[in-house]
Q: What sequence folds into this?
């Protein structure tokens, strides 16, 4: 079971329960778990080797700030997609698939959850695990 580094503060759903659900799906293949809104982010979990891979704590902090400046726009993009594709329903998540990681960003009305996984983890399995918790609250 992963241990959260900080208490969740930004999301309406239970991040600890989400972390447990993702842990069931991804285990040691969970890289990072971050809650965020338009103003700030809260690092809940990061695997130690990921910090090293990204250049150490200072480099990771700079990258996290840069990522947040982009991902905070998810809420605007969510509205845009829902306007364009309204007949398809609400936007619940964005996914980026890269060579060495998959990033899943689950968005609510005013807060989101950033989940970075090893590429071997099932995207649909991780999304289903998160949505099951989020939708039940």
A:
């Amino acid at each position: 079971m992963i241990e959260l580094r900080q208490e969740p503060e930004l999301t309406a759903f239970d991040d600890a329960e989400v972390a447990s659900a993702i842990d069931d799906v991804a285990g040691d293949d969970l890289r990072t778990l971050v809650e965020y809104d338009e103003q700030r982010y809260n690092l809940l979990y990061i695997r130690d080797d990921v910090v090293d891979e990204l250049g150490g704590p200072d480099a990771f902090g700079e990258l996290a700030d840069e990522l947040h400046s982009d991902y905070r726009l998810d809420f605007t993009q969510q509205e845009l997609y829902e306007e364009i594709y309204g007949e398809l329903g609400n936007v619940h998540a964005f996914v980026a698939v890269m060579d060495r990681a998959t990033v899943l960003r689950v968005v609510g009305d005013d807060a989101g959850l950033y989940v970075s996984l090893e590429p071997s983890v099932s995207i649909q399995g991780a999304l289903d695990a998160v949505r099951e918790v989020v939708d039940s609250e």
Summary: The mean pLDDT is 84. Residues 57-71 form the longest helix (15 residues). The helical segments are 15-26, 48-53, 57-71, 74-84, 123-136. The domain at 15-136 is CATH 3.30.450.30 (Beta-Lactamase).
